[in-house]
Every structure is written in C-alpha cells, then in structure tokens.
Amino acid sequence: MNFSNNQSQESSLVPNVTNPQNVESFKPNFIVFNYMLILLLVSNLSSAGIRGYRRSLPYLRINIILILNYYLVETFNTAVSIVTCAAMVGSLTSVPYWCALLVELAVTYLIHLSVGISMLISVCRLLMIIRFDDMIEFEHERFSQRVLVLLLVLFTFILAFPAYVVASKEFISPQVAFYTGLAEWFVKPNPYLVSFGVTSLVCILATVGPYFYGRYYLKKYHSIRKTLKNLYNKALRSYM
C-alpha cells in the first residue's frame, strides 16, 4: 500500500506535457530571434573560413592535431547552429515537446563530443613529443576518422541512460521550457549535467596531465641532448 501510494504521489508530480493547460501563454521574442540569427551567421562564416583554410593546405602540412582541431571546430559550429535555429523557431512559435527533447539531446551530445575531442588533442600532442617517429607513420586522415568514430560510439553509450531518464521522467529543463512554452519541471541533479561533470573531470585530468608531463619531458631530454651536443662540439674542437 505504501509503495503504491508513493508511486501515485510521484506520478502526480510529473507534468503531463500533452495537456494544453501546462503550456504558458506564448509571446514572440524578436530580440532573441535577431540575436540568435547573428550568432548563427558569425559561427557559420567563421567555420567556412577555417574550412577553406584547411582545404588550401598541402598534404604534407596536414597532421593529426590539425585534423582533430578541425573536427572540434565543426562540432562546435554544429552545436551552435542547432541551438540558434531552435531558439529562433522557439522565439516565434512553440516547438513540440519531443522535438525540444531531441534538440536538447543533440546539443548535449555535441558538447560531450567537443570535450572528448579536446582531450584527444592533448593526448596526441604528448604522443607527438615522446613518440614522434611512431605518430608520424600513421595515415593522418584515416587515424583521425577512426578516433572520431570511437568517440561517437563511446558517447552514445554514455548518454543513453541519461537520455532515457530525461525522456521517461518528462523533465522540462529551462532550454526545453523556452522552446515549448511549458513550465519548467526537473529533478536535481539533472542527468545530463551529471554526465557532463564526470566527462569534464576526466577531460581536465587528461589535459593537464599530458601538458605538464610534456613540459617535463622536453626540459629533461632537451637538456640531455644539449649537453651531449656541447660535449661533441668540445671533442671535435680538440681534434682540430
């Protein structure tokens, strides 16, 4: 009895998103529309310039780090484009709830992907320092594409459970509330924020660690090589 009562009380707290009474009075917001339009144009123009610069580079100047940075720019531009387009539509008319959930999921997925690509860039920079000969033997385009596919699959599994929780509980985040006109309703902590917090923590550790180790490696082995070079020059001068 107590368990059934608790279930009924919990279900009564969840709003019915299909009920028109839960939709707040909608008013078009042209300030948000214009602001998002400017962001959309700036983001896509900047990405187009970077895209053109990459195409102008000769093959020998393209490396893994440059390709991953290009993927990062494209991922960020895609996230900005989705957010701005959804906000432009949401500032003029209400968006269906399921569509707003898909937009929120897509943006969250792209943000996680951006964090993952940033982490990989730091790791690849370290490998280019300590394993340059091995890294340079890779086919850069193919290696970068495989790494990107691996990240796509990884974050699909990571976000599967948070997306299920958000959809089953019918959470209405501030972002979804703006798109749909529904009243905000969500339970703390937000599953998306939890997954992003864990991913960001791993990214920070995987970025700061390789950075300091790379500096230590360069300082140590470059000083050794410099000492050996000086000894070689002294020995060479003594024979002359």
SSE pattern? HHHHHHHH
User: How does CATH name the architecture?
Assistant: Up-down Bundle
Helix content: over 70%
Total domain units: 1
Q: What is the rounded distance between the termini?
A: 100 Å
What does the main sheet amount to?
none
Q: What is the CA-atom radius of gyration, in angstroms?
A: 25 Å
Number of helices: 8
CATH topology value: Rhopdopsin 7-helix transmembrane proteins
Count all strands and give the number: 0
Shape: globular
The CATH class assignment is Mainly Alpha
Structural class by sheet pairing and helices: mainly alpha
Unreliable sequence segments: 1-16, 18-22
Tell me the β content.
under 5%
The gist of it:
With 240 residues, the chain is mainly α. The protein is 80% helix and 0% strand. The model is unreliable at 1-16 and 18-22 (pLDDT under 50).
Question: Any overview of this molecule?
Answer:
The chain has helices at residues 2-13, 30-56, 64-92, 97-130, 132-136, 140-169, 174-180, 191-239. It contains 8 helices and no strands. It has a single domain, classed as Rhopdopsin 7-helix transmembrane proteins (Up-down Bundle). It has 240 residues and is mainly α. α2 (30-56) packs antiparallel against α3 (64-92). The termini are far apart. Residues 1-16 and 18-22 have low confidence and may be disordered.
